[in-house]
Amino acid sequence: MNILRAFGLLLVSALPVLAADPPLKELPLSAVKASIQIPEGWHVKEDNEEGVIVYQITREEITEAGGTFSVGLTLSVTPDVPGRAQMSPSKYAAELLAFSVEDGGAVKESKSEPFHTLRTEYAVEGETGNLRIVDVATANDTSGTLYFLAWQAPDSEAKALSELREKIITSLKFDPSM
Q1: For position 18, what pLDDT does the model report?
Q2: pLDDT tens digit string along 33-43?
Q3: Which residues of 115-132 are buried (b: 16+ CB within 10 A; e: fewer)?
Q4: Which long-range contacts (C-beta less than 8 Å, at least 24 apart) are formed by 23-26?
Q5: Cis, bond preceding 114 (omega within 30 deg of 0)
Q6: Contacting residues for 24 by C-beta, under 8 A, at least 6 apart
Q7: Cα–Cα distance between 21 and 70 in angstroms, integer?
Q8: Rg, the chain, Cα only
Q9: By three-state DSSP, how is residue 59 classified?
Q10: 167 backbone dihedrals φ, ψ, rounded to 5°
Q11: In angstroms, rounded to a whole number, what is the distance separating the alpha carbons of residues 159 and 162?
């Protein structure tokens, strides 16, 4: 009986470790002079279309650029926003996030020169059920670049993944000259 009790205590004490987020590793995003930390075992796909670099960083492996996934993020880096959209990256970011406000999100704003960051969170109906979306638009009006990160997870997993999501999002580092 003492062996069973000891095993039970060992199992209960190990549960927090088993439920912990996976270890993160640094991923250099050399094409855009940035870096992010992602869970070990996650998949990365990079695409470059007309100078806009898009990274898909996902829990599931996707076979083609623009492929679907349930958990992960897409990071789009758009240089020369004033030339492409005839407005500053900050204004362009605000216009992009205005669509999420229509879906029930509220925009939070922060500034840390030269970056201006807007963030929103909302739910949408996806092909396989409701998704929780977090959009983070970081504008560098000095360089003309917009970094747009869109995180998604099924509503059923969103709460359990929120701490991991925040670790990933806050680990994103940009070169101010880009």
Answers
A1: 46
A2: 999 999 999 99
A3: bbbbbbbbeeeeeeeebb
A4: 24/167, 24/168, 24/171
A5: yes
A6: 37, 38, 39, 40, 167, 168, 171
A7: 17
A8: 19
A9: coil
A10: -60, -45
A11: 5
Q: Quote the pLDDT of residue 127.
A: 76
Number of other CB atoms surrounding residue 71 within 10 Å: 19
Q: How far apart are CA 149 and CA 135, in angstroms?
A: 6
Q: Give per-residue pLDDT as tens, 114-155.
A: 999 999 999 888 777 899 999 999 999 999 999 999 999 999
DSSP for 127-169, please give it: TTEEEEEEEEEEEETTTTEEEEEEEEEEHHHHHHHHHHHHHHH
Greatest extent of the chain over all pairs of C-alpha atoms, in Å: 75
pLDDT greater than 70 at residue 50: yes
Write out the DSSP string of 60-104: S--SSTT---SSEEEEEEES-HHHHHSS-HHHHHHHHHHHHHHTT
Length of the chain: 178
pLDDT confidence of residue 104: 66
35's enclosing H/E stretch is: strand 34-39
For residue 72, give the amino acid letter.
G
